[in-house]
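Hey,
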Amino acid sequence: MITRMQMRFHHGRQFTALLIVVLLLGVVPFASAQETVLAYVTTQDFVALRHGPGRAFERITVVPPEVTLPAYGRSSDTQWIQVEYEGQRGWIASILLVWSGDVINLPVDGVDPEPFIRRAAALGMTTRETPIYPAFTHMLPQYQVGTIPEGVALELTGRVGETGYFRFQVRYEGQLYWVGSWDIRLIDGDYHRLLDLAYLFPYGRLVQSLEENLAFSLSSYTRILSVWQRLQRGDRVACDPLPTYVERTLTDGDVLKEPLFAPVIVPLDNAVTAINRTISVFEDACTTPGYTLTPETVNTQLAELASAQRSLILAGSLLEPLRARNPLLDSGT
């Protein structure tokens, strides 16, 4: 979730496009009033707490697993989270954390950060005088808090959605605001690296969970398919390690929250059942003394996997329009 082209916005100063390519030292400290805890994170393993958001920064200490910490800041692409542990602030790679709360509104660069050179994930430029809003849910005229002149380079720090008319969070004069993507022209980087606020909502979490389930199912399908294809050719196949059984992590209760996803679950479950059945047969062949694999058994498993492949394709095709729909923005496709 990190990498960047740099950009620093100082209060009262607007950068031109020429300055975008220059790496600047130093950061603007945030006021103590912004030190309110907006989110909490929990470590998933032993993790390094560092002085800054990157592995090049000196390690302060190691934080053990299953420790919940207050979060005070983030890098612009949210690959690093600033936390406090045993009275000392530092940074932990977000891939090693699970979080809850308003991560998107944590101060970019954190509180009282170490001086460092940063590369922003994405940069955009306003194409006209652009209205700015305090939250993406309040992008109506009565909530407008100001404008950004045309031709101003902005660091993009978050988003809601990724196609059509969606919203960007931007950093302007040291503060975070929301603008319409239709007012921004991307001039560097990849906005897909930015944190998508959809994680806060059941719909967005379901999309992400289904994508993960499909990816895991496809991985196990590919491995067990290779096993049975090699057996069909008469090749030797090692029993260790066995392909991983697939388990749907999405609960029926999760799906009931968004009934639109129910049609995706049916082919996904069919694929999971077929994949696991073929893994089970291979495990029996490996662990049962005297078990004999016949050509008929091999062909049956390949037929099962052909059915699983069709189910995975169907589940993916049904998920795609739901992923693009994004009801948070009322922008169905």
